[in-house]
Specification:
Elements lengths: L7 H20 L2 E2 L2 H19 L6 H25 L5 E7 L2 E4 L10 E7 L2 E6 L5 H6 L2 E8 L5 E8 L1
Antiparallel strand pairs: 1-7, 2-6, 3-4, 4-5, 6-7
Helix pairs in contact: 1-3, 2-3
Length: 161
């Protein structure tokens, strides 16, 4: 590791941030409890922190590396569930209980989303910007759902009604 520059720990931390982005993207298409993901993330980070606390001198770097490792492992778990999904899909209809859109970025459009209830759990389904007109008039959505590798349902198709 370099003292004044970009070292291997910095690269690991950057990789963790990128993995976290992909984990969030896959989470949006997986029926898994947000609380369960948060508990798993914090638990993994804490366990990793215990193992590295004597190996890395800076407390701040210990925290960053622990969070990066947790992001990376959560990404592997969610990606594995998603890409290892079964070929067979079920079609399920859901009533839309809420609608909205994310804050518009400099180059973005403010992605629209809908909210549905699945087994008494609220789920936010994100759509492309091109779907805004259809979302504004839709009352229900039909989702194509496949069973993921680790047993969590994965959204493979979305049709607004």
């Amino acid at each position: 590791m370099m003292k004044d520059g970009f070292g291997s720990l910095d690269l690991f931390w950057l990789t963790g941030i990128i993995a976290g982005y992909f984990a969030i993207d896959i989470f949006q298409n997986t029926f898994i409890s947000q609380l369960a993901c948060q508990i798993a993330f914090v638990s993994i980070a804490f366990i990793f922190f215990i193992f590295i606390r004597n190996k890395i001198p800076s407390f701040l770097r210990q925290i960053f590396v622990s969070l990066a490792a947790s992001s990376f492992l959560m990404c592997l778990f969610l990606e594995g569930n998603y890409w290892g999904k079964a070929q067979a899909t079920n079609r399920r209809d859901y009533i839309i209980t809420g609608k909205g859109e994310f804050v518009k970025g400099r180059n973005g459009c403010g992605q629209p989303y809908i909210i549905i209830n699945n087994k008494s759990q609220e789920k936010q389904i994100v759509f492309n910007c091109d779907d805004k007109p259809q979302i504004s008039i839709a009352n229900s959505v039909q989702l194509g759902i496949a069973k993921g590798l680790f047993g969590f349902d994965v959204i493979v198709a979305k049709t607004l009604h």
